[in-house]
Amino acid sequence: MRPVLACLILAATLTACASSPSVYAPAGDGDRGYTDTRIEQDRFRVRFEAGADMGFDEAENMALRRAAEITLENDGDWFLVTSHDVDGNDRNPVGVSTGVSISSGSRGYSSRGVGVGLHFDGDAGEKSVSIEILVRSGPLPQDPHAYDARDVLANLTRS
């Protein structure tokens, strides 16, 4: 029983070390967070990378939040999402499997066994949301892909 307990403790430790939390901050080299690129004078690509601790909806909200900040930094009032791409999965990074076996052989020999298996999926739970936006000024149009930058920030930065 001690080897099984040791394996479970090791698995929990490795998982804790491997999975840093998703935070709203600029992404470093290979880190989670946001990146943005100016494509044209008024067009930007915003990407938010998240881990298993964040759902797709929350990751999308973080990309919209960054888009709103970019809009205001560029003297815009609203932005239009012209493309939207989501990639990744919601799988659990650690899986546990169990098995029981009973066998009998010749001459009355029999055996029983219990097995516990752990597997680690390094890409599990990783997700990214990428949007392309146009920064605009003036009245907000009646378009479901148009967002008021100030409203987005007011709603997505509440604690």
Notable characteristics:
159 residues, alpha+beta, two-stranded antiparallel ribbon, 7 strands
How are the secondary structure elements laid out?
Elements: H1 2-18, E1 33-40, E2 43-50, H2 56-73, E3 78-88, E4 94-104, E5 110-120, E6 127-136, E7 146-148, H3 149-156
Antiparallel strand pairs: 1-2, 2-6, 3-6, 3-7, 4-5
Output the structural class. Answer: alpha+beta
* Strand order, sheet with most strands: 1-2-6-3-7
Rg from alpha-carbon coordinates:
24 Å
**Uncertain regions: pLDDT < 50 for 5+ in a row?**
none
Number of domain units: 1
- Residue share in helix: 25-40%
Q: Provide mean pLDDT, rounded.
A: 82
Give a verbal description of the structure.
This protein is an alpha+beta fold and 159 residues long. It has one domain (2-156). The chain has helices at residues 2-18, 56-73, 149-156, and strands spanning 33-40, 43-50, 78-88, 94-104, 110-120, 127-136, 146-148. It has a 5-stranded antiparallel β-sheet with strand order 1-2-6-3-7. A two-stranded antiparallel ribbon has the order 4-5. A hairpin with a 5-residue loop joins strand 4 and strand 5 (110-120). Helix 2 (56-73) packs across helix 3. The radius of gyration is 24 Å and the shape is rod-shaped. The protein starts with a helix and ends with a helix.
Q: What is the compact description of this entry?
A:
The protein is of the alpha+beta class and 159 residues long. The protein is 27% helix and 39% strand.
